[in-house]
Specification:
The protein is an all-alpha fold and 111 residues long. The protein has a domain of 53 residues. Helix content is 43%, strand content 0%. It contains five helices and no strands. Helix 1 crosses helix 3 and helix 2 packs across helix 3. The radius of gyration is 27 Å and the shape is elongated.
């Protein structure tokens, strides 16, 4: 990694690579990774973006660029639409409802 001037990076190259691999493999959020390395999430985003760009440039890695990922003829979207039962209380609301139409704000009761 050659220096172009500016501020020193808060993460070492090794930590940046490890964070990038955690992001790609475990789908951790930038906020979660940033908390782990004690930096701001926006800085974590920039570090991971830089590392991904460098890995794409290297011929030894097999990470395709964004254009290669978006050039697929077919795109498949899978949606889980499994029905789930919703647990609702068995009691009847009428057992607890008095029929009064009052506000539940204490300030309104003192007027």
């Amino acid at each position: 990694m050659e220096s172009k001037g500016g501020r020193k990076a808060k993460l070492s190259v090794e930590d940046t690579l490890l964070a990038t691999l955690s992001y790609l493999r475990e789908y951790r959020t930038f906020a979660h990774l940033a908390a782990t390395y004690e930096i701001d999430p926006s800085n974590m985003y920039r570090a991971i973006k830089w590392c991904e760009d460098e890995l794409i440039k290297m011929e030894e890695t097999s990470i395709p660029g964004l254009e290669a990922l978006c050039s697929n003829k077919y795109r498949v979207l899978t949606v889980d639409v499994t029905e789930c039962t919703i647990e609702r209380p068995k009691e009847n609301q009428r057992d607890y409802y008095s029929g009064k139409k009052t506000t539940h704000n204490e300030a309104a009761n003192y007027r």
